[in-house]
Amino acid sequence: MSCTANDKPLLVFSTARYRYLADKMCQTPGLEPGGLEQQVFPDGERYLRIRDDVAYRDVAVVGGTVTDADTLEIYDLACGLVAHAVHTLTLVVPYFGYCTMDRAARPGEVVTAKTRALLVSSIPTAGSGNRIVLLDLHTAGIQHYFGGLIRPVHLQARDRILEEARRVGGEGFVMACTDAGRAKWVEYLANELGVSASFVFKRRLSGDETEVTAVSAQVRDRPVVIYDDMIRTGGSLIGAAQAYHDAGAATVSAIATHGLFVDDALPRIQNSGLFDHIVTTDSHPRAVALADSADNDFLSVVSCAQQLAGYLARHG
Fold first, then answer.
1. Quick check: helix, strand or coil at residue 68?
2. Which residue of 52, 142, 259, 263 has the fewest CB atoms within a 10 Å radius of its CB?
3. Per residue in 217-271, pLDDT tens?
4. Which contacts qualify for 214-218: CB closer than 8 Å, 24 or more apart?
5. Which CA distances in Å does 122 have to 144, 149, 176?
6. Domain match, 174 and 105 both
7. 44 — alpha (psi -120 to 50), left (phi > 0) or beta?
8. Measured between alpha carbons, how far is 63 from 241 in angstroms, rounded to an integer?
């Protein structure tokens, strides 16, 4: 394990919404929770007070860009830590949002993924540098939107995905995806697992409606495990599952890194009757909250804390 500044443990702070993940990460030797006081005033303004002496210490901030308010909380906390003379600053962002607007499709559109990356990049630089650790970006190119002196690191939850695919897939399953856009990644996963790969062809009918036109592989009488990086509304996932069932799949389950489950997405997916099981990581607090529901055994949430903490422990 790399030694941190002055051979002291790396201090791990977090935004309020990601305290659950920071606590799990701090179970790894070499990582220690940082003391932080957090309050919200009646008008919504945040109060942050760093309770530890962080001067010349290596520190990490764990938080996802779930909302603009969460993004600003990361920004405020990080700026405060640098102002108190930390040695290095690592932002651990398990879920980086703004993936809908990761590029401009029409003239005049604002690429929000880039503007938020530039905001994060404007955090003052710690004594020996800043970096941001990202997990399974919706579009890999987003990491190149960060500028200045911050160094992006893109991790993948591959090992957890492979482990869960074996568990829920069982014997002779097919690794699948929701559309051709994920075909290369799913093909890679299938090769690692030694199973067949499949994807669906879709035709867009309108801005929010698509139609499945074909399935690429033989799935009849076989279990199908769909992988997607993110489950948001569940629309694409349900459409793909229906196509695999229409093609004769014995069962369909789904695995995603990020479980956003906007509004009633999870009951909508469950009530479709198309899925045996859904698995996500705990990269998004919505998935954690839903998995903690006493009446829910349809959704399983596995932790990415060990992978994130392991990276920090190895690289200081």
1. helix
2. 263
3. 678 899 999 999 999 999 889 989 998 998 899 999 999 999 999 999 999 999 9
4. 215/243, 215/244, 215/246, 215/247, 217/174, 217/176
5. 15, 9, 39
6. no
7. left
8. 32
CATH number at residue 310: 3.40.50.2020
Verify that 129 and 78 share a domain, yes or no.
Answer: yes
DSSP state of 8: P
pLDDT score recorded for residue 275 = 97
Range of the domain at 237: 158-282
Asked whether the beta carbons of 86 and 54 are under 8 A apart, the reply is yes
* Mean pLDDT, range 259-285, rounded to an integer: 95
10 Å CB burial of residue 293 (0-12, 13-18, 19+) is exposed
Which residues lie below 8 Å from residue 128, measured CB to CB, with a gap of 6+?
5, 87, 88
Question: Residue 213 pLDDT > 60, yes or no?
Answer: no
Give the span between the Cα atoms of 282 and 288, in whole angstroms. 6
Number of domains within the chain: 2
